[in-house]
Design brief:
- The complex is a heterodimer of chains A (106) and B (120).
- By secondary structure, chain A is mainly beta.
- Chain A is 0% helix and 50% strand.
- In chain A, strands 2, 4, 5, 6, 9, 10 and 11 form a 7-stranded mixed β-sheet that branches. In chain A, strands 1-3-8-7 form a 4-stranded antiparallel β-sheet, with no helix packed on it.
- Chain A is globular and about 35 Å long.
- In chain B, strands 2, 4, 5, 6, 9, 10 and 11 form a 7-stranded mixed β-sheet that branches. In chain B, strands 1-3-8-7 form a 4-stranded antiparallel β-sheet, with no helix packed on it.
- In chain B, strand 7 (68-73) and strand 8 form a beta hairpin.
- Chain B is globular, with a radius of gyration of 13 Å.
- The model of chain B has no long low-confidence stretch (mean pLDDT 96).
Chain lengths: 106, 120
């Protein structure tokens, strides 16, 4: 099984900050990685797919990078609507989610 | 507009069974894979099962194998998750999600989820 590990688990930041979340895979997944955002009481919403492709309708302040086993999600300038939990997901072999990163207000 | 609406959740006792349904609309159902993901309240996301567009490929997470069965009816735009021998650790919100393609790929659209509570 492919394990996904995110860091940090919790991130405190202010509006306007540049935020980076890291996701590591236990083996190479090429670029088969997606990032999701989940707000309280809502279903997850995809932000990034294939490691760096922006899903339609997602603001350009979100970006993804990486390949192989190490990936990052970057929010260039944190907005009030971005305080949420973020999950990475590999879809190279079956599907596995990371444990999540909560972005909270500093 | 893509819509996914789950139903069938509720309170059941350990060992009992439950069938969840997901009604899909707003897209050509028989061309996309469908998936189930669950989330224990306050915890992370766990992939449960996936079924390809034609039902040719079906996959389960290891902890669900042998107890859960996924199926779909392409004539009715429905996907099902039959859950047997339910345990307390199956308590979760169960989401239905559409894949981006006929098989594999990430989960592009999600329903709002249905809560399953397993308790005596």
């Amino acid at each position: 099984d492919i394990q996904m590990t995110q860091s940090p688990s919790i991130l405190s930041a202010s509006v306007g900050d540049r935020v980076t979340i890291t996701c590591r895979a236990s083996q190479s997944i090429s670029s088969w990685l997606a990032w999701y955002q989940q707000k309280p009481g809502q279903a997850p919403k995809v932000l990034i797919y294939k490691a760096s492709s922006l899903e339609s309708g997602v603001p350009s302040r979100f970006s993804g990078s990486g390949s192989g086993t190490e990936f990052t999600l970057t929010i260039s300038s944190l907005q009030p609507d971005d305080f949420a939990i973020y999950y990475c997901q590999q879809y190279k072999r079956y599907w596995t989610f990371g444990q999540g990163t909560k972005v909270k207000i500093k | 507009e893509v819509q996914l609406v789950e139903s069938g959740g509720g309170l059941v006792k350990p060992g009992e069974s439950l069938r969840l349904s997901c009604a899909a609309s707003g897209f050509i159902f028989n061309t996309f894979s469908m998936n189930w993901v669950r989330q224990v309240p306050g915890k992370g996301l766990e992939w449960v099962s996936s079924i390809s567009s034609s039902s040719a490929y079906i996959y389960y997470a290891d902890s669900m194998k042998g107890r859960f069965t996924v199926s779909r009816d392409n004539t009715k735009n429905l996907v099902y998750l039959q859950m047997n021998s339910l345990r307390g650790d199956d308590t979760a919100v169960y989401y239905c999600a559409r894949g981006r393609a006929a098989a594999g790929e990430y989960f592009q659209y999600w329903g709002r989820g249905t809560l399953v509570t397993v308790s005596s």
